[in-house]
User: Fold Class I SAM-dependent methyltransferase from Castellaniella denitrificans.
Amino acid sequence: MPIELAEWLETPAGRYVRAWEQRQVDALVGNAFGYHAIQIGLPHWNLLQANRIPYKAWAHSPSAPFGTRAGRLVCEPEQLPFDTQSIDLVVMPHTLEWCADPHQALREVERVLMPEGRVVLTGFNPYSLWGLRESLPGLDLRLPVPVPSQVSPARLKDWFKLLSFELDRGRFGCYTPLCATQAWLHRWRFMEHAGDRWWPAGGAVYAIAAVKRVSGMRLVGPAWRQPRRRRVRRGAVAPVANRINEDING
Assistant:
């Protein structure tokens, strides 16, 4: 499926999706800081170009097209070869849709991310015009990912709650019908603005950013207080003072 997805991204509809996702991911990763960033999947597509983190790597499964990019790592998303809490930014373009265990892949990302680290995900929205068309019987499938394999944003939010992720930002896009030619995509381009305004959750694809939150330590119990000085009645001070003088004078 990764090869099919890579090939589909070169079709008119794929280039339409790719251009939209590139703009969204650039905006989501532009202000992410740290020392290590990694993109998991589609190594021939650079979604880290707008980020200024010095060390970048592109991880992909053995069946994905390798390309000629430097910094490539061959691994499965469910088993990342990184130390715990060693990565500052992870970008996953449609990664959860083709891996064998998407929840485990997201769990691995949570493991390798630093506290306050960021993950950016893109995917197809099954609850869109494109998803509806692909679900109708008798029609030829045009998407590289079948609807049952698509991970909806609502499902992602549930997984975020189970892990230590907090949803930061997200957006839907690509509201035109699933057309096979560039000419028809251009004719329907007016739906991009209308969909973003009237049915924002119906876009064909989405881009979502989440932050790994780690609860800080705090003291449990009563607050520290300075010891109070005991008040002594005047009448009780004299006998004590006299007794101390008697002991000193012998």
Observations:
- The chain has nine helices and seven strands.
